């Protein structure tokens, strides 16, 4: 009786230990994100396990693997690792339908589970640009639309014009028929001018499934516009007897060819000396009769434009011969001489006015008491030494 009681106690003790150990066990999983068409790795770990089985099941609660035994016939699902502490499987060529909540079960009493959510990213299709019809006339309003489908979550679309981003655009997001992915479109509106000819307009699709390598679509613009015309002379100072080349520089699309040269509103007067070659007017030998207004006219299918050049033929002898007297220079010299002379006279007068002169008069010679003039003169000759001096000033 005592032995039976002891055996029962041991049994309950072992069951208690097992129950206590099983309560400490718990499976650990992590959520997984994978790009559509890629491979998802699902891992379930148990830190403490007393040889209890692990199982992976899909969102439909179908068993995929029970320990190392495959339960679902799907060639895309493979066993990666199976131990008492870990059960790892892989799902290749993942599709959007594989997305959902997967369950790892640890068959204790009671069964313990852990959830792992598999997120599948839908890769956006290569974008397409529509709305461009070549060519476009200068001044027209252009509307370009860029569209991409199949993104999950919805992709982002950005526009660039010659590598400069354009912010003012319209954006539209629509859910696809599968109710999982999105079709995204963006519209760019702008009025074109001749500077837009040859410009690259780029639509760029950014999405987390693209691994920092965006998808792009490019449209090169072709703009037609009226010609712009400019006349360039071969020399800035044409002289009689020398040649002259006038170049009609015209830009337009389509390119204007040929150009039309006229003089004073009419035809060129001397075809033998005035030869048109492409866009150039060659005047072989200049003379005075060539003076006038030359006009270059360029025309394409869009419109017409022109430029004018006024030709003045200079006499080389008049330019290089001796020059006459410079009257302005002579007048300036004369003015300086007159000014110097007047200044000299003025300074001399001031000098003489400041320096006194001293001399003896008859009154200063002591002749005041003489009875007559003769006596005064005689007395004066003998008394010059003691005579009183009188002062006068030179004016």
What's the short version?
This protein has helices spanning 2-24, 316-320, 327-354, 373-382; strands at residues 32-35, 40-45, 54-57, 63-66, 69-70, 77-82, 86-91, 100-106, 112-121, 128-130, 136-137, 141-151, 156-161, 164-166, 170-175, 182-191, 200-206, 215-220, 223-233, 244-253, 259-263, 274-277, 280-283, 292-299, 304-311, 357-359, 390-392. The chain is of the alpha+beta class and 395 residues long.
Description:
The protein is α+β, with helices and mostly antiparallel strands. 17% of the residues lie in helices and 40% in strands. It contains four helices and 27 strands. The strands form seven sheets. A six-stranded mixed beta sheet has the order 1-9-8-3-4-5, with no helix packed on it. It has a five-stranded mixed beta sheet with strand order 11-19-20-23-22, with no helix packed on it. The model is unreliable at 1-22, 358-367 and 383-395 (pLDDT under 50).
Structural class: alpha+beta
Task: Give the low-pLDDT segments.
Answer: 1-22, 358-367, 383-395
Give the strand line-up of the largest sheet. 1-9-8-3-4-5
Total helical elements: 4
The average pLDDT value, as a whole number, equals: 84
Give the % helix. 10-25%
SS elements, strand count? 27
Q: Distance between the terminal alpha carbons, to the nearest Å?
A: 174 Å
- Overall outline: elongated
- Portion in beta strands: 35-45%
Q: Major β-sheet, in short?
A: 6 strands, mixed
CA-atom Rg in angstroms: 57 Å
């Amino acid at each position: 009786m005592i032995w039976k009681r002891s055996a029962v106690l041991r049994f309950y003790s072992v069951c208690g230990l097992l129950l206590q150990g099983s309560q400490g066990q718990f499976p650990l999983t992590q959520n997984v994100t994978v790009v559509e068409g890629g491979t998802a790795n699902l891992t379930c770990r148990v830190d403490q396990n007393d040889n209890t089985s692990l199982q992976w099941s899909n969102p439909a609660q179908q068993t995929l693997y029970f320990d190392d035994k495959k339960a679902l016939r799907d060639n895309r699902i493979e066993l990666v690792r199976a131990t008492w502490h870990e059960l790892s499987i892989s799902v290749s060529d993942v599709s959007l339908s594989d997305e959902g909540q997967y369950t790892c079960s640890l068959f204790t009493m009671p069964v313990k589970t852990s959830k792992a959510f598999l997120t599948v990213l839908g890769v956006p299709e290569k974008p397409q640009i529509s709305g461009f019809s070549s060519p476009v006339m200068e001044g027209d309003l252009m509307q370009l639309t860029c569209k991409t489908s199949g993104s999950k979550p919805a992709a982002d679309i950005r526009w660039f014009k010659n590598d400069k981003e354009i912010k003012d655009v319209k954006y539209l997001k629509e859910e696809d028929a599968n109710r999982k992915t999105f079709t995204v479109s963006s519209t760019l509106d702008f009025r074109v001018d001749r500077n837009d000819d040859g410009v690259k307009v780029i639509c760029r699709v950014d999405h987390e499934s693209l691994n920092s390598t965006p998808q792009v679509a490019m449209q090169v613009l072709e703009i037609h516009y009226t010609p712009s015309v400019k006349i360039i002379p071969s020399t800035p100072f044409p002289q009689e007897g020398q040649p002259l080349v006038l170049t009609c520089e015209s830009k337009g699309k389509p390119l204007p060819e040929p150009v039309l040269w006229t003089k004073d509103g009419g035809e060129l007067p001397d075809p033998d000396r005035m030869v048109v070659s492409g866009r150039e007017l060659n005047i072989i030998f200049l003379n005075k009769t060539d003076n006038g207004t030359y006009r270059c006219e360029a025309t394409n299918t869009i419109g017409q434009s022109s430029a004018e050049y006024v030709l003045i033929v200079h006499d080389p002898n008049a330019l290089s011969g001796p020059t006459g007297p410079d009257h302005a220079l002579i007048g300036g010299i004369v003015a300086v001489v007159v000014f110097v002379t007047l200044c000299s006279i003025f300074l001399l007068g001031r000098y003489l006015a400041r320096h006194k002169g001293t001399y003896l008069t008859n009154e200063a010679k002591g002749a005041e008491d003489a009875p007559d003039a003769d006596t005064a003169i005689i007395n004066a000759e003998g008394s010059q030494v003691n005579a009183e001096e009188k002062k006068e000033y030179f004016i």
